Amino acid sequence: MRRDKRLVVKPNDSRKALKQVFSLLKDYKLKIFITFICALISTSFTVISPLLIGQATTVIFNGINDMMNGTGTINMETLVNLLIIASILYIVSAIFTYIQSWFLTQISTDISYKLRKQLIEKINQLSMKDFDKNKRGDILSRITNDVDSLQTGITSTFLQFMTAVITIVGVFVMMLSINVTLTIVTVILVPISFLIISFIMKKSQKYYKDQLKYKGIVNAQIEETFGGQDIIRTFNQEEKSFSTFQKDNDKWYTYDWKSQFYSSLMGPVINFISNLSYVIIAVLGAILVLQRAILVGDILAFFQYIQNFTHPIQQITRVMNLVQTALAATERIFEFLEIEVEEDPSTLEINEINDEITFNHVKFGYDDETVIKDLTFNVRKGEKVAIVGHTGAGKSTIVKLLMRFYDVNDGEIKIDGVNINKYNKNSLRSMVGMVLQDTWLFSDTIKENIRYGNLNATDKEVITASKIAYAHNFIIHLPEGYDTVLNEDTDNISIGQKQLLTIARTILSNKKILILDEATSSVDTRTEKFIQDAMDRLMNNKTSFIIAHRLSTIKNADKILVIDDGRIIEEGTHKELINIENGYYKGLYNQFEVEGGVD
């Protein structure tokens, strides 16, 4: 299975990916500022609350001590006031936490919406060459999985990271206000944590990019396997298909396991350091209390602050998993968005053929393989030209060059004496109607599938086109008639019926140039005769290119081009070519007469 080289060898660049994330956030400066203020208020109130609880504990401890000594009681007024203030702070903190979550969700959802829109727009801008280089499943993975990973990263990671940083700073200040010695002992362990985290992140980062890469590859394989089940089973290739899938799925598993393993190490490391802090502070705190250098309530508050100090660090380590996934996803999204689009500087419009289409010494190849080697012919306006030849001779490539799906490597194609490179691509393609061997229909009603050829067509015009294509009779016998909805795989009608619908769609489009790429290859002989009659009427006075599968369909062509190895080896009408002794076309036709078709 061919791989896209860009996906395989492109290195990971976290710094660039981070810049790309910030570029996405630049349009939300006000909302991010509001989110930051909410986080600051919420976290500050949460940080202050343990100090109040500690003071309340000191009031209770001192009151109990005084009661035991018979010198006083618990100061209930001070105790209640401290508890009420702490409760209010917790409630207000929760409200501001909700507000910041709401804004971040709005930002991340909006960014996801815009990115998916940009990705779809990018798909519409890509050349056929780019489609050849990118697997459909991988592109789909970037639009769905990668965008979702980035959205989760912005919503969860940004919120938790911002809150964690503010908490660490706030808690550090509060710990200093309680006792400098205990604070220094607690904080001195933090650099050790970050050194370990840095080492683990460096190890795991490369696995996240590979994990997403193989996730896209596996998605592409799953799509191909589902779409090609009939072929896989016909050739008994289930084992080979599974073997190919298993190979890449194993790689996905390996990279996923390694990335998760390294990330999972961070939590236990931080927990160990946190527990070590508790032990050290408990011993030092007891000594300081005995020396009356610190109050019991302050020790309780300090323990709470240790948890509040180490928890954000743990929080950061947990979200680093999401951070790395989000950065890798961002890199893949922008990697696709940054594919250079071939600009079409042509501005000349075309809406009619007045004279002829000319191929003049045209040469073309896909990558290193030359398909069209030297092609010269002309087609007069209204002529019906058939192109025949064995598979791989270059028949379909000719019409792709005419529609500028690809540009020629050498030579030129002209319409009315003007090189088609000077015509705007959209203008050029708006003149062409195509019926392909591989049908393309979407999950909607039959009526809308036919109307796709002319979105402004009335229901009456849709029905008329269906009758010309001999599709009307089978449509009206469907459960819902023209309102029958084709399912996702459009397999609730036969292959031949799908072909009739695409022919009806082309008839409705009423284009100046018609391209029929083996259009009747999927229908039976009886239906083929009906379609051929319809095609003859459709092609009347239209310039038509017919890529023939069954030679019986091109007997009435004005001109037949016989292609072999990228060159025209014979040219003429059916009658002229069949009379050439030992001719190539004559051999194909005789083979057709015996076998019923030509490949």
Put the structure in a nutshell.
By secondary structure, the chain is an alpha/beta fold.
Count of individual beta strands: 10
Task: Quickly give the structural class.
Answer: alpha/beta
Reading off the top of the CATH hierarchy, the class of the largest domain is best stated as Mainly Alpha
Poorly predicted tracts of residues: 1-11, 594-599
Largest sheet: 6 strands, mixed
**Overall 3D form:** elongated
Strand content: 5-15%
Mean pLDDT: 79
Q: Could you give me the name of the CATH homologous superfamily of the largest domain?
A: ABC transporter type 1, transmembrane domain
Q: What letter string, H or E per element, gives the SSE order?
A: HHHHHHHHHHHEEEHEEHEHHHHEHEEEHH
Q: Using the CA coordinates, give the radius of gyration.
A: 36 Å
Span of the ends, CA to CA: 25 Å
Helical residues, percent: 55-70%
What is the fold's blueprint, element by element?
Elements: H1 5-9, H2 14-25, H3 29-69, H4 76-125, H5 128-133, H6 136-178, H7 180-187, H8 190-227, H9 229-234, H10 238-290, H11 296-337, E1 356-366, E2 369-380, E3 384-388, H12 395-402, E4 410-415, E5 418-419, H13 425-429, E6 432-435, H14 446-451, H15 459-468, H16 472-476, H17 495-509, E7 513-517, H18 525-538, E8 543-547, E9 559-564, E10 567-572, H19 574-578, H20 584-595
Parallel strand pairs: 3-8, 3-9, 6-7, 7-8
Antiparallel strand pairs: 1-2, 1-4, 4-5, 9-10
Helix pairs in contact: 2-11, 3-4, 3-6, 3-11, 4-6, 6-7, 6-8, 6-11, 8-10, 8-11, 10-11, 15-17
